[in-house]
DNA sequence: CTTGAATCTGACATGGATGGCAAGTTTTAC
DNA sequence: GTAAAACTTGCCATCCATGTCAGATTCAAG
């Protein structure tokens, strides 16, 4: 599939897909004329990338992480080295923190929303 | 307490605390000479603000939300109006999505970390 | 062919919280 | 009263994914 279809199927803009490629997060075959041609696996990969972005990881970390994931786009490929494991452990803690923050904030929102729905309490 | 101590106690830079004030997220008494003087409640408020920032809300939404929270810095004050409730409901859904993303990403990190810890699997 | 849609590259803009600097004032301590 | 530390305001810089625009090229269909 080409970039437009991938964009449609993932909800990620073509602009971002090109950016992902430049950051080394994904590759694409090229037609003789230079247009990108993606395989089916690209959809999952893009979604995975988006999730990692949403989790606050930067392109560089994601680029290091992706080849260590299994079923990312084929083989389990490589195993994380010590430095990366250390980095990822830090990220993991950050994510835990973020989840806790989110849960608290969600409670706050719920309280406010509920208070507004029960006007005469 | 003054801004330096509040910064120390919350882990938020003085720069950011002034920014919060300019965005209408918090207020401070002033000494005759113009220095900010915070009450004890400021610590909790700053932490709450940080959590909401971490949850992806922008200053404007937080500013609207804060007066509708109970025990924010005194009274329950005001009740959210329809527009705000609608906005907050959208934010709430976004937060739910984000939590789901974070949980998935955390799993990914755990897999990679674990795979690296069990080298001969 | 020809035409319109899709894609290419490259450069510049944006948002929003935060960092940093500069020059001046206030506070604190001796 | 003096010096150092803390604070004030204001402005510009940064990060980083994403948006946007322009001009050129390619692809698909008639």
UniProtKB/TrEMBL annotation, chains A, B:
Superkingdom of this protein's organism: Bacteria
Domain HTH merR-type: 1-68
Listed Pfam families: MerR_1 (PF13411)
Xref: CDD domains: HTH_MerR-like_sg3
PROSITE patterns: HTH_MERR_1, HTH_MERR_2
SUPFAM superfamilies: Putative DNA-binding domain
Molecular-function GO term, any one: DNA binding
Region forming the signal peptide: none
Keywords: DNA-binding
InterPro entries: DNA-bd_dom_put_sf, MerR-type_HTH_dom, MerR_fam
UniProt-listed PANTHER family: MERR FAMILY REGULATORY PROTEIN (PTHR30204:SF97), REDOX-CYCLING DRUG-SENSING TRANSCRIPTIONAL ACTIVATOR SOXR (PTHR30204)
Name the record gives this protein: MerR family transcriptional regulator
């Amino acid at each position: 599939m080409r970039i437009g279809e991938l964009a449609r199927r993932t909800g990620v803009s073509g602009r971002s897909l090109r950016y992902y490629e430049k950051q080394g997060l994904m590759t694409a075959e090229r037609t003789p004329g230079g247009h990108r041609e993606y395989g089916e696996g690209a959809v999952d990969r893009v979604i995975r990338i988006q999730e990692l972005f949403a989790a606050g990881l930067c392109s560089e970390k994601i680029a290091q992480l992706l080849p260590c994931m299994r079923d990312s786009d084929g083989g389990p490929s490589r195993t994380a080295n010590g430095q990366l494991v250390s980095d990822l452990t830090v990220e993991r803690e950050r994510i835990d923190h973020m989840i806790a923050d989110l849960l608290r904030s969600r409670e706050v929102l719920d309280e406010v929303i509920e208070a507004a729905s029960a006007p005469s309490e």
